[in-house]
Amino acid sequence: MNKEHYIGIMSGTSLDGVDVILCEIDSNSCKLITSLEYPMPLELKSEILRVIEENCTLESLGEIDHRLGLLFTQAVGALLIRENIDPSGINAIGLHGQTLWHAPEGEYPFTMQLGDPNILAAKTGIPVVADFRRKDVALGGQGAPFAPAFHEFIFSNINSSVSVVNIGGMANITVLGDKLIGYDTGCGNVLLDMWIAEHQGKAYDENGEWASTGVVDYTLLDKMMSDDFFQEPYPKSTGREKFNNVWLQKYLSGHTHNPEDVQRTLLELTAMSISNEVLKFNPDITLLCGGGAKNTFLVERIKVLMPNVEVAISANADQIEAMTFAWLAYKRIHHQKVNLKDVTGASDNAVLGGIYV
Ligand SMILES: Nc1ncnc2c1ncn2[C@@H]1O[C@H](COP(=O)(O)OP(=O)(O)OP(=O)(O)O)[C@@H](O)[C@H]1O
Ligand SMILES: CC(=O)N[C@H]1[C@@H]2OC[C@@H](O2)[C@@H](O)[C@@H]1O[C@H](C)C(=O)O
User: Fold this and answer.
1) Beta partners for 187?
2) Is 168 found in the same domain as 70?
3) Is the whole model's pTM more than 0.95, yes or no?
4) Residue 13 assigned ligand-binding role
5) Beta strands in the chain (DSSP E)
6) Relative to the CA of 133, which ligand 2 atom is closest?
7) Residues 6+ apart with CB under 8 A from 325
8) Nearest protein Cα to ligand 1, atom 11
9) Ligand 2 mean position to 86 CA, how many Å?
């Protein structure tokens, strides 16, 4: 069987860094060979947040597209140099890009990922597959989440009923079965990160330590849990354009709260919005992945909220999203459709992504 080598690049909604992985892929398997986390410069992170949350000009968008193209190129270069890899041995790079805005519903649906793939292809000499999501949106789909198709590929050999939950900035669930189910459950770490940054100047609440000093405000929790997004049926997907400071302030306004109680309540919101969805499918096992799987207090709360489900941290928990995009590049290079229509609501499965050489 022919083994091929693909690089996957993911920079998610947390804006914490760029995950770069190298995989060996064939029609039956995807083996992680090595990975690297390349830091997102703080100034670029602030500029991206400013454009998303405050003020956007065409010039700022164009410059961010270029700067991200350079950043992804540096990240790939760092991996190739560290591992002493010749670029000619890489079949292609799967580049997710940085989501700036995701609006799959409405009169003119769109999803926007930036980071010019031409720069990456030109500077590395490696073919790049990018722009994965817009074909799905063109077919009437949500354009997200895509990881469920990869979860199906790597986890369907498990002989129990399985669900997979990625806890990134946003959180998404996959339920494996005859019909593949997957959708975003809502916020993952994004509100927790935002609140601790504002009150303690930290990028994230390590192991939920600050949250654990507060108490859950159940009135606030109930109000937030009654938000439309949590009530809507799937297919559904979301992003920073919804779960952001404006969203939080809407629920906080009119009351005074201790900051640590808000953090504790936000952690409970993440745990509850995830576990409510998992429990709808009653799986034997739930595999957690993404950065939130390292938050020991969050994982503890998820376990408490679903005592009859075995909760485990998945293999390669930090790399699965980047592996997804390496595998999607493999699918594109081989002109294979991706099994996502039941997840995203697209009218058909499709060959996803454009090739940049
Ligand atoms: N030890 C830890 N304790 C608490 N939280 C952690 C820990 N390690 C990572 N995190 C959280 O994980 C986040 C990063 O997760 P991840 O990289 O999976 O997100 P992402 O890929 O950017 O998001 P998305 O999946 O929505 O695109 C950090 O911002 C932080 O909130
Ligand atoms: C539009 C977008 O970038 N969505 C991300 C985000 O981060 C988690 C969740 O929201 C998921 O829908 C998706 O990412 C993963 C990689 C996915 O497509 O499965």
Assistant:
1) 170
2) no
3) yes
4) yes
5) 4-11, 17-25, 30-39, 92-103, 110-114, 128-130, 162-167, 170-175, 181-187, 285-289, 310-313, 354-356
6) 1
7) 8, 9, 10, 94, 95, 96, 132
8) 291
9) 31
Ligand nearest to the CA of 99: 2
Pocket test for ligand 2, best of 10, 237, 314 (most atoms within 8 A of CB): 237
Q: Are residues 177 and 308 in the same domain?
A: yes
**Number of domains the chain is built from:** 2
Q: Are residues 177 and 287 in the same domain?
A: yes
Residues with CB under 6 A from ligand 2: 12-13, 99, 102, 111, 144-147, 166, 168-170, 172, 184, 237, 239, 321, 324
CATH code, domain with 238? 3.30.420.40
Same domain, 19 and 120: yes
Residues 180 and 265 in one domain: yes
The model's pLDDT over 39-98, given as tens digits with 9 standing for 90+, comes to 999 999 999 999 999 989 999 999 999 999 999 999 999 999 999 999 999 999 999 999
For the chain, how many helices (H) and strands (E)? Answer: 13, 12
Residues 203 and 281 in one domain: yes
Ligand 1 pocket test: pick from 9, 15, 16 the residue with the most ligand atoms within 8 Å of its Cβ: 16
Q: Is 18 annotated as a binding residue?
A: yes
Decide whether any atom of ligand 1 lies within 6 Å of the 292 Cβ.
yes
Together in a domain, 131 and 171? no
SS (H, E, C) 46-100: HHHHHHHHCCCCHHHHHHHHHHHHHHHHHHHHHHHHHHCCCHHHCCEEEEEEEEE
For residues 65 and 122, membership in a common domain is answered with: yes
| 288 is known to lie in a ligand binding site | no
Q: What are the 10-residue block averages of pLDDT along the chain, 357 residues in total?
A: 89 96 97 98 97 95 98 98 97 98 96 98 98 98 98 91 97 95 98 97 97 97 98 97 96 91 98 98 97 98 98 97 98 98 98 98
What is the residue range of 67's domain?
4-142+322-356
ipTM of the complex: 0.98
